[in-house]
Amino acid sequence: MSNLFVELKTPITGSFQQPTGLFINNEFVEGIDKQTFEVINPTTEEVICSVHEATEKDVDIAVAAARKAFEGSWRQVTPQQRSIYLIKLAELCEKNIDLLAAVESLDNGKSISLARGDVNSVIGCIRYYGGWADKVEGKTIDIAPDMFHYTRSEPLGVCGQIIPWNFPLLMLAWKIGPALATGNTIVLKTAEQTPLSGLIFATLVKEAGFPPGVLNIISGLGRVAGAAISSHMGVDKVAFTGSTPVGRTIMKAAAASNLKKVTLELGGKSPNIVFNDADIEQAISWVNFGIYYNHGQTCCAGSRIYVQDGIYDKFLEAFKKRAAENKVGDPFHHETFQGPQVSKIQYDRIMDYIKIGKEEGATCEIGGERHGDKGYFIQPTIFSNVTNDMKIMQEEIFGPVAAIAKFTHEEEVIALGNDTNYGLAAAVHTKDLNTAIRVSNALRAGTVWVNCYNLLHHSLPFGGYSESGMGRELGEAALANYTQNKSVAIRLSGPLF
């Protein structure tokens, strides 16, 4: 068997062929330096396999392939044909949903039910942008009787895209959908912790018939391949989802190179606000989902929970009971809700924050310890008696750790909710429509949910204020991240003046 594929097995799929090479020009290839790195199963702490590592030299090759496709074969493809390619790709994802979900669970540790949900969202996202491909329009603008003016929305060119490990396939879809629909070509780097599902996806790209070089998917380290993409003079735009500190580094590299366009979807520390008149049972269900979904490894997680004093005690007791019911364990077990954290580094980071919370004087109501003795599992954790100046209330933990505090007045909780450097998401739980609208409008966040949480859709724009990033993913708004406007002015025949 070629060293570009390895045989793996999951309880869902049985044996399957896992690509391990770099996907460049519609082929899996070795890295120039023939370097590889290990992929660790977070459930067992064992090596799944090794994949080829992209270096700066490989990024050069992938960018050259993308540039050749952009200036050649892809430029000749009509918007209608781009639509057909994308819809075909969505259909292939649908056909292979079990394989894609199983590899996602194996590699990332998320429960198989959540992984299937992710793949369904991938299918919807790619199909949605397939529908947009032939609907990107310009305008005619009437300025003078002897002139004809029109605008065009043109693709940017070669787009570098760097995705995170918490939603490997979903973030891939969010990135490639609008970029391909608008006629760009792509070099996409997966997260080094979770490269496997992206490589499976690459096989479907080729099967869908995309011309070589249009979508290149490489595995590599952020500090090497990610840095090379960010600073590459042949990349016209970089899109990144991940931490705010890394986002700053990417923005500096983009500015210092060719001043490439940048969109960043970064961290969050989102407030989840529960008023006295909320339906407590429903609010607890959504608050639980808001923080513990995807093991707490969600940029928009509702990690800061503010509960009005009239129901605080009742809410806290019920929330503790609900959180303790979350099934933590093997992601391939049908009852599992929370799998392991993605890596030993992430596990240690979260446990350090739990230790800090205890040292700062917060009360650990439940959890705060390792779950089991194998794998990177952490018990669902709730801290009470948390003040807004504590690290666990201000810094993004990115794990199954909730911080809960009491408030009295609406104005007070708005100030508390906005007391953060982030601004990605927020939620309001109340039966009063006036309160819902008033507070939603006052919160500085890119998304506000009312009486729900974590309900994202490919039709709705998603992104943050302040240090949560710039630009918007999803919806029609994402198309603007991948197009540039050109004005054309045609002077009709006649006298010069």
UniProtKB/TrEMBL annotation:
This is aldehyde dehydrogenase (NAD(+)). Keywords: Oxidoreductase. It catalyses: an aldehyde + NAD(+) + H2O = a carboxylate + NADH + 2 H(+). InterPro entries: Ald_DH/histidinol_DH, Ald_DH_C, Ald_DH_CS_CYS, Ald_DH_CS_GLU, Ald_DH_N, Aldehyde_DH_dom. PROSITE patterns: ALDEHYDE_DEHYDR_CYS (PS00070), ALDEHYDE_DEHYDR_GLU (PS00687). GO terms for biological process: acetate biosynthetic process. CDD domains: ALDH_F1-2_Ald2-like. It comes from Bombardia bombarda. Its EC number is 1.2.1.3. Gene3D superfamilies: Aldehyde Dehydrogenase, Chain A, domain 1, Aldehyde Dehydrogenase, Chain A, domain 2. GO terms for molecular function: aldehyde dehydrogenase (NAD+) activity. The keyword DNA repair does not apply. The active site is at E265. Residues 31-488 form the Aldehyde dehydrogenase domain. The keyword Oxidoreductase applies. Belongs to the aldehyde dehydrogenase family. It is an enzyme of class 1 (oxidoreductase).
